[in-house]
Design a protein that fits this description.
About 35% of the residues lie in helices and about 25% in strands. By secondary structure, it is an alpha+beta fold. It folds into 2 domains: about 260 residues, no CATH class; about 230 residues, no CATH class. α10 packs antiparallel against α11.
Length: about 575
Amino acid sequence: MCLRRVSKWMPLFALISFVLPQGAGAQSPLEAAQLPARTSFYLVWHGSPSGDARKNNALMSLWDDPDLAPMRAAIVDAIMNDANKQKDKPGVTREELAQIATLLDNPFTIGYLPRREVAVKTVAGKTAAPAWNGMFLVYDRTGKEELLSKTVLRMRSSEKEIPKLSEVTVAGVKALKIERKSGTTYWAENGKYAVVASEESIFEEVLNRLAGKSTGGSLADSEVYKEAKSLLSGGLLEFFLRVPQIKDMAGDSSSTPPELKAMWSNLKLDSLHVFAGYVSLEGARTRLQGGILGDTTEGSLFDIWSAGQSQSASLAYVTPDTVYYNESQINLMGIYNTMKRVLASPGSSTAPIAKTMENAAETRIGMPLPGALALTSGEFGTMQTNPALDPDKKVFFAGILNKPESLKLLRTMLSDRLTSERNEGNVTYLKISLKGNQGAAGVAQWKFYHLAVPPVLLLGASKSDTLRGMLSQPRPAGADSLPANLTAARAKFPEKLIGFSYYDLQKLDWPAVQQNWKTQMTKAVAGSKSTDSVGKTKMLNDWMSNLNPIVFPRHLHSMTGASWKDASGVHFDEWLD
């Protein structure tokens, strides 16, 4: 399971840099010390950083670069098109959207509070708790009062359903009760804050907290918050989630079938106490740090992650020419035991299905599943040495522990698709047909894939030359074979890691990357049958086609990240420079 793919949080950075103006940060409403002790989730946006922080940060300076204007305009147009889809409603202009975006100058807090107690009612002979939506929003509207009011009125005017509006007083504050078929919303603008909630009791509790009339404990004093405190150091935003309460946030637990409750229990979700972290600007770099903390003793859900390695086998194939390298380590036996505990527990209706599926898999591979999983090290990943990011040059890898037995397993699994096998030194090369079956009279084979099996690794690529080229390169022993930037980045993290990623953005041939992107997008459009998918793909293609690709290396240098497991949980730390 990979926690460190930096590319997955790039959209978050892009959104932040898009909406962030050049202002000064401010204290956010409802920090942890003000939130109720039972809070299940919160996300705090701490407000915009100073102008210098934005100017000096690599990602944000990229976003502000005039050469990126076509992408900024395309994103605005996409948002406008979505906002203007309703017929007979006035569309949002580019200027209006830019103005609305400045609402994110100010800090806000989004959170979720579970109900204090369940009021069970009987309907048609069945007991069930009423629906519950514990979400709330507190927004610091200082300096944005008029813009906020205009934006809210505009949103209401664009609704298809005309809601029922009535004035109410909650916690001594005059508020607006907005009733729709889909539910009720409470809204108040009180002093510097705007407050929104769907439950009156939550609305009242939040208003009291803002007024300093809170009763009961604080989240900051709870044991679970103290456990996560080291991961909540502010920055642009911070987030906190009590993982076991996900099942309650998804629906009312009182109406959950007993068997589903048993599966949740067998999953041991309670062993994951909290998921927390933050995003911050640290000079030129942007950082995402966080973790999943809890009970890591054997038999918990943390078993799906391995203990980590100080030197992964795949690093031996990284050279100074490597553009990117991404490696993860998972505990396949831990995943197997977890799934068996959840699906195959005695007496459950899923046990026979799970057993049938396991028997079918074992028949196909010719050995028990635990034996097959024991042949792998749990290491998986990709690497690329081509500056143009040619997909034919991309190499996938998986760690193995017993080459002879692993080859035997591969031959069994790929028996009707394996077209050739040959040994060259200590490397075995396999050629696999992805289309057509070997031995079927009159059936041709095409679209081949290639595997190379040195002693401790399984390598795969779409072209045989890619594998042969990688394995033919001389490799100095030790750290001399690794890029200096990778070595420096690796040294910043703990000795044993369960994942590591490295991306040298300065080595990329950006014009060639742009051309490869366009080629892949064109193929995607030609092969897609979905009109909506084709439209989105063409839009992405237009974004990249109209860019000056040199804008990227002008600001960005590298992306690195790592994840590791210790006695407190699983941690991740990602950097974009």
